[in-house]
Write a structure and sequence with these properties.
Length: 764
């Protein structure tokens, strides 16, 4: 202790010499042959080097090589003083290079392993500073500086731990060195130091890990070594610097892979990240928000982020003047809005107005994320109304003219969803949406084409819009999109034409524009939804008398008939309906049967779908007007299902079935077979139907059947007389006529004549 006191006294004297006479005489003493003099001089220079001016003078007076020589001394006191002085000098950028050029790196690295903690600490501090220089990083690696630095992470002295972590932090800026560092075993001690009680140690360790984290392989190793738990704990630190480093690492890890996105939440990171959105430290805010953006790509996390109360803070950040925060918050909300429950919550929390405002952002990334969020929200029917109420339609229409195809696609998709609402169908057209949407039908991008056609499809649900859309010239580009080798485009274009074809004038325009052939071609599509929309379009087009002929001329019959056997109920129904329309034409009545349509139509009568039953029976009703078809329908076992449908609870099904049976009953042979199939009881029951058309046709069928002598008797036996007589008082003349003629036929039989009179069939 006496020696150290003497040395300290000597150093104090030399400090005064340096202050009074300058640095040079003190530097000269480093050349002394006496160890104690050298140590005193080094200690004095260490103290004097506090100022930048003295740092420069010490080097100018030749102090560096002398101090470096002392590093190689066997005396630990000399090592400590020299290393400490060099530590101070190495703060200056030029000295970082000079110390290495003078050969100081090797002995400094050697002293990192000194058994004397103070020597190792000072050497570590100097190495930490030297490692800032890119040139020195490689040289440190060459001098094998990593192992002793990593060892010092486990020092008992917090300051040494801090300096070692800081040195490694500087080195880790170089990716190649970072990999070597991880291979050398730096991760475990660095992660352990995250739980240190010393804030500076924690901060430097976290900074080092942050520098290592950008490499994918390092990320994987960090997670394997259990970094996530300590990091999540640091998110709750009250120290903003530590929060900043922790959030930055968690951010990087959450970008690495899907597993890490889930792990952040599993380790309890969600709540502190949400809390940090309100931090006054902008970098902490940014890192937290960007991390939430990353983890919100996970569908489970989308739900949890909202459940944990993140929405108010995220929505608040949409108003931030910080572009990074705005962007990250917008993307997070965009991701969260993919969940159907979140669609409602985001709007309830007031997210819609700022998102709509961001549609006009000058930042294209923010604008793009906002429009995707609006698109997601617009899939909710309530939100469709609110988007319009909040003024979202005009800016969405404006984005249709963007030069960015993605922006066009998302804006068009949002308008497509909004157009599911009846009021919005009017608003979008009134706000000038039609021309740009129609313009996008000519885009070279399939996704944009599909969205534009989908928007037209929804807008065309409005009666007036059907006319406006045609007037604006949409039909031809829609037809051009058919058979475009893209199922989405085909589906939406065919669906749009289907809706437009519900207008009588448009049925002519659509066919004139050449839609029939591609629609018929698409009936062979392997995609059910494409088949359905194309068939629906043909169904409505075939309402027009001329189109009934054109559909057959274009070769549509075989494909429509084939779809009667589709596995999809909706397609079978549409096919039956289309054939029902086509069968009104006299020539088609023959051609449908020749093409094999009879058997699948009869099969469709057995469907559990009442609409399919109705259309199949309606098609057979028209076909049965043809005399040859009357026989063929019965021969192909059409009677049993037709008779069964007379019992249907659906009046439309009853009507089509009873008219078909009425037509079939014109044939003499069928008169007998219809009765044999048990048609009399349901026909008689239908005389009591509340629907006058059904009464008329039921009476008409009985009229035809009553031409047969045996049937005259059976009709009376089955109890038809009271109901037929009651129909004589119907307000409908057609019903009266059919009932009267049936009674006339029945009364030809003597016994029946008496029965008719007895039942009150003659006026008093």
């Amino acid at each position: 202790m006496a020696g150290r006191a003497a040395k300290n006294a000597s150093a104090e004297h030399l400090i005064k010499v340096g202050q009074d006479q300058g640095i040079a005489p003190v530097v000269d003493l480093l050349r002394s042959t006496e160890e104690t003099v050298q140590q005193g001089a080094a200690a004095a220079l260490w103290s004097l080097s506090v100022t930048t001016e003295n740092k420069i003078k010490i080097v100018e007076r030749g102090g560096l090589p002398l101090l470096i020589r002392m590093l190689r001394s066997e005396d630990e006191g000399s090592q400590e003083q020299a290393a400490g002085c060099l530590y101070s000098l190495s703060v200056l950028a030029e000295n970082k290079l000079n110390i290495v050029q003078e050969g100081g790196l090797a002995p400094l690295v050697g002293l990192l392993a000194s058994p004397n903690p103070e020597v190792a600490k000072q050497a570590c501090g100097c190495v930490r500073n030297l490692a800032v220089s890119p040139v020195n990083k490689e040289k440190l690696l060459h001098e094998n500086g990593l192992p002793p630095l990593i060892n010092l992470l486990e020092s008992d002295d917090p300051k040494t731990q801090e300096l070692a972590a800081s040195a490694l932090r500087n080195l880790a800026v170089n990716d190649a060195i970072g990999l070597r560092m991880v291979d050398a075993g730096a991760l475990i001690p660095l992660i352990d130091l995250l739980t240190s009680q010393d804030k500076k140690v924690v901060e430097q360790s976290a900074m080092c890990l942050r520098n290592l984290s950008p490499l994918q392989s390092n990320c994987e190793r960090m997670v394997e070594e259990g970094i996530m738990g300590p990091l999540v704990s640091l998110l709750r630190s009250r120290d903003e610097k530590i929060q900043e480093q922790a959030t930055a690492i968690v951010n990087t890890l959450s970008m690495a892979n899907a597993e890490n996105k889930a792990l952040v939440v599993e380790e309890g990171g969600l709540t502190p990240l949400i809390n940090l959105l309100r931090s006054t430290n902008k970098r902490v805010q940014e890192e937290s928000c960007i991390t939430l953006r990353n983890i919100s790509a996970n569908t489970d996390n989308q739900v949890k982020i909202v459940q944990r109360g993140a929405l108010p803070a995220l929505i608040g950040l949409l108003h931030s003047s910080n572009a990074k925060l705005q962007e990250a918050a917008t993307i997070t909300l965009r991701n969260c809005s993919m969940n159907s429950e979140n669609e409602v919550r985001i709007v309830q929390e007031g997210g819609l107005p700022p998102l709509i405002a961001l549609l006009r952002s000058a930042d294209s990334k923010i604008q793009a994320s906002a429009v995707i969020a609006i698109r997601n929200l617009s899939s909710n029917s309530t939100n469709q109304v609110k988007i319009s109420q909040e003024g979202g339609i005009p800016p969405l229409i404006g984005l249709l003219r963007s030069f960015d195809p993605k922006m066009q696609e998302q804006a068009c998709a949002a308008l497509r969803y909004c157009a599911e609402n009846a009021d919005n169908q009017v608003n979008i057209v009134q706000d000038g949406g039609l021309p740009p949407i129609i313009g996008l039908l000519r885009s070279g991008d399939h996704k944009i084409q599909a969205q534009a056609a989908g928007a037209i499809r929804n807008l065309a649900l409005n009666v007036e819009n059907k006319v406006r859309i045609a007037q604006e010239g949409a039909i031809q580009p829609l037809v051009s999109l058919l058979c475009f080798s893209n199922d989405d485009v085909d589906e939406q274009a065919a669906g749009a034409l289907w809706n437009l074809s519900m207008n009588s004038d448009n049925r002519i325009r659509v066919v004139q524009s050449g839609a029939l052939h591609p629609c018929i071609t698409l009936l062979r599509s392997s995609e059910r939804r494409v088949q359905e929309q194309s068939l629906g379009c043909i169904r409505d087009l075939s309402v027009n008398p001329d189109n009934k002929v054109r559909v057959v001329q274009e070769g549509g019959l075989p494909h429509i008939i084939a779809l009667l056997r589709s596995r999809e109920e909706s397609i079978r129904e549409l096919a039956g309906w289309t054939l029902r329309n086509l069968a009104v034409n006299a020539e088609n009545k023959v051609l449908i049967v020749e093409e094999g349509g009879l058997v699948p139509l009869i099969a469709l009568l057995h469907s559990m779908n009442e609409r399919a039953q109705e259309h199949a029976a309606g098609a057979l009703r028209s076909l049965s007007v043809n005399a040859e078809n009357q026989n063929l329908i019965v021969q192909n076992l059409g009677l049993p299902p037709l008779v069964a449908l007379l019992h249907s609870q659906n009046a439309a099904v009853q009507e089509q079935a009873v008219v078909c049976i009425r037509n079939l009953s014109v044939n003499d042979e069928n008169e007998v077979k219809i009765v044999q199939e048990g048609a009399l009881p349901p026909l008689i029951k239908l005389l009591q139907s509340p629907v006058e058309r059904i009464q008329e046709h039921a009476a008409g069928a009985l009229r035809n059947l009553s031409v047969n002598n045996d049937n005259k008797v059976k009709i009376v036996i089955e109890g038809a007389l009271p109901h037929l007589i009651a129909l004589l008082r119907s307000r409908d003349k057609k019903v009266q006529v059919q009932a009267c003629q049936t009674l006339q036929n029945i009364a030809v039989n003597d016994e029946n004549e008496v029965a008719v009179v007895r039942e009150g069939g003659l006026p008093p």
